[in-house]
């Protein structure tokens, strides 16, 4: 049984919220009483997710947002505050995976694409969230890194460097803002059963059996398990947790 949280009267903002870990976190926040701003670049999927949550009685708004564009990020965060009244929690989840590539052959276009979304997108999201949280003197932010932020894997240099960068952003900003009442942490998911991972498996970029065997728990994680880690880090139960890059990876990085 998962723990329960009472976020009644609070507001959360989630990027990459139309599917996978982002949608699971948005749903978990909403089911715990929070109003939620859902941001995603996929307009159709975002509106479908928002409608589903609204139909279930939750207070959410949909925000079409490409996190690689700082102006769009700023507008999405501002609209969340303007519409829902404040900003207490944020889960910066939006990110992409790229095909494995020999480090000597990778294009600058692929390198820049993965860093623009995975690293600069989280930088922009955190920047504009902090502007509101700084003014109110409270808040909790969780950034999505990866087991790839903690280890290296051949063929994945650009992706892993983007996720290592997320941890650097997280720890440095956490030290800066902890004295101001704002906690910043990151989760480092292992291989999780999400649409992105399913797409990698379908394209032959990931072998499911191998991925399961590489995680000592012998299975893929679920989006809901990642959401529970996010909610805990945003909750009073984690009130003394600052600047952590939390592995949620079925034991992968413990080996």
Automatic annotation (TrEMBL):
SUPFAM superfamilies: NAD(P)-binding Rossmann-fold domains
Superkingdom of source: Bacteria
EC number: 1.1.1.47
A Pfam family that the UniProt record links to this protein: adh_short_C2
Top-level EC class as recorded in UniProt: oxidoreductase
Keywords: Oxidoreductase
GO molecular function, one term: glucose 1-dehydrogenase [NAD(P)+] activity
InterPro entries assigned to the protein according to its UniProt record, in alphabetical order: NAD(P)-bd_dom_sf (IPR036291), SDR_fam (IPR002347)
Record family assignment: Belongs to the short-chain dehydrogenases/reductases (SDR) family.
NCBIfam families linked: PRK07231.1 (NF005559)
Descriptive protein name: Glucose 1-dehydrogenase
Organism: Streptomyces tabacisoli
């Amino acid at each position: 049984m998962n723990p329960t949280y009472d976020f009644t009267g609070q507001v959360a903002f989630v990027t990459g919220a139309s599917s996978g870990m982002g949608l699971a976190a948005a749903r978990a926040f909403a089911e715990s009483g929070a109003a939620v701003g859902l941001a995603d670049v996929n307009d159709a999927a975002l509106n479908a997710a928002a409608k589903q949550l609204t139909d279930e009685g939750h207070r959410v708004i949909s925000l079409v947002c490409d996190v690689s564009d700082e102006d769009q990020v700023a507008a999405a965060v501002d609209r969340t505050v303007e519409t829902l009244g404040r900003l207490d929690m944020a889960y910066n989840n939006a990110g992409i995976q790229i095909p494995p590539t020999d480090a000597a052959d990778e294009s600058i276009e692929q390198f820049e694409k993965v860093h623009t979304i995975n690293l600069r997108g989280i930088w922009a999201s955190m920047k504009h969230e902090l502007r509101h949280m700084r003014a109110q003197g409270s808040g909790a932010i969780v950034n999505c890194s990866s087991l790839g932020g903690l280890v290296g894997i051949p063929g994945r240099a650009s992706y892993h460097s983007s996720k290592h960068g997320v941890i650097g952003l997280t720890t440095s900003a956490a030290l800066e803002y902890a004295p101001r009442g704002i906690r910043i942490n990151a989760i480092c998911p292992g291989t999780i059963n999400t649409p992105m991972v399913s797409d990698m498996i379908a394209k032959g970029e990931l072998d499911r059996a191998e991925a399961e065997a590489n995680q000592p728990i012998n299975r893929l994680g679920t989006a809901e398990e990642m959401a529970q880690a996010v909610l805990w880090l945003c909750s009073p139960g984690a009130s003394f947790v600052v600047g952590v890059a939390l592995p949620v990876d079925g034991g992968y990085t413990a080996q």
